[in-house]
Design goal:
Layout: H1 20-26, E1 28-30, E2 40-45, E3 49-50, E4 63-68, E5 74-75, E6 82-83, H2 86-93
Antiparallel strand pairs: 1-2, 2-4, 3-6, 4-5
Length: 99
C-alpha cells in the first residue's frame, strides 16, 4: 500500500500597524504593538472622547476591542473617537435645561 502525505500551507496576513500618527488623528490609544493574526487589541478613547454610537444600554463607550483577522483586517473597523459634546449628552440622557 502507498501512503500519501498532504501538506497544507496557511498564509496569514498581519494587520496594519496601529501607529502613533493614526492614534493622534483618531483620539485613541492602545495597549500593545502586536498586529499578528488573531491578536486582540483594546483601543481606549482619549479623555473627553468616546466611540459613537453609545452602547445599547445608553452608556458612552470609551473602549473597544478589535481583532486582527486572518485576512489582515481589524474587526470591527477601527473608526475614530469623537468629542463628547453637551448636545450629544442631551440626546443620550434626555437632559432638559431649567430656566
Amino acid at each position: 500500500m502507498f501512503e500519501r502525505t498532504i501538506n497544507f500551507i496557511i498564509f496569514r496576513i498581519a494587520c496594519p500597524a496601529l501607529n502613533t500618527t493614526r492614534t493622534q488623528r483618531s483620539n485613541w490609544h492602545f495597549d500593545t504593538q502586536a498586529v499578528d493574526h488573531n491578536t486582540n487589541v483594546t483601543l481606549t478613547c482619549a479623555a473627553g472622547y468616546w466611540w459613537q454610537p453609545p452602547s445599547l444600554s445608553g452608556h458612552p463607550n470609551t473602549t473597544k476591542t478589535v481583532n486582527c483577522g486572518s485576512d489582515g483586517n481589524w474587526t470591527p473597523a477601527l473608526g475614530d473617537c469623537v468629542p463628547i459634546s453637551m448636545n450629544s449628552l442631551r440626546e443620550l440622557f434626555d437632559i432638559v435645561s431649567c430656566s
